[in-house]
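pinging the channel bc i need a second pair of eyes. not urgent but kinda urgent?? the chain im working w is below, pasted from the shared doc
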Amino acid sequence: MSRYDSTRRAWEDIWDSASVEQELETMSYPRAVETLNAYLPYLSKADIVLEAGSGLSAVILTLKRMGYRVMGLDYAVNALETSQRYDPELALVAGDVHHLPYAENTFGAYLSFGVFEHFETGMRVPLAEAYRVLKPGGVLVLTIPYPNIVNQLLAWRRKRAGMSVLNDDEFYESTYTRAALTNEVQAVGFKLEQVVPTSHAYTLWGIGAPFRAPGYYRTNALAEGLGRVLKTVLPWPFNFSTLVIARKP
């Protein structure tokens, strides 16, 4: 089985063990609210918004309730089926971000949250597909994990122990520096609007119990407070996920 297929299977297992309700709960977490507030001003209710890699549709459901016209696409069919049972009116399609089943110049915005880092072949092809299906003036909203201090420390410890740098050999996940990510986005033709480090408290969550609250990937008050400080004094070393907002000319 290829790494692509094993990663897709891993996502299917992840979504089988989660719920729409849990994923919707995360939309109220500070890190999600911060990200949402950063990109909302770039979305138009007059155009269709596509989330490619929509999972259990928490973002789509949130935007739909806010009055946006939204569609979702994912290669984990079970996630789409679960989402459809939760809200039969959702517009969802099974598909691959490398080969989108849409015509050129279709969407006003393309959203991708933690998707492109899971492809061993890189992000150039799905980025080019995002560019193709966006209308001129359309907006790309993208988040990608950053090789922060905690991430680098864990990778060093695994390497020193003779282990793969990947946490799971069957589940591919990479990180991108600010320069590498912006180069990829610009290479397919996008013009950058914002490049923002986010979710500093969640970087601390990765350290373990002192920064974790009961619940589904929830950070505690200590993590949130320290995260706000780190966002100010060390925004990039403790950046968990880089938010890129870019536009198709």
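so The chain has a mean pLDDT of 94. and The beta strands are 48-52, 69-74, 92-94, 107-113, 134-145, 191-198, 241-247. — does that match what u expected or am i reading it wrong
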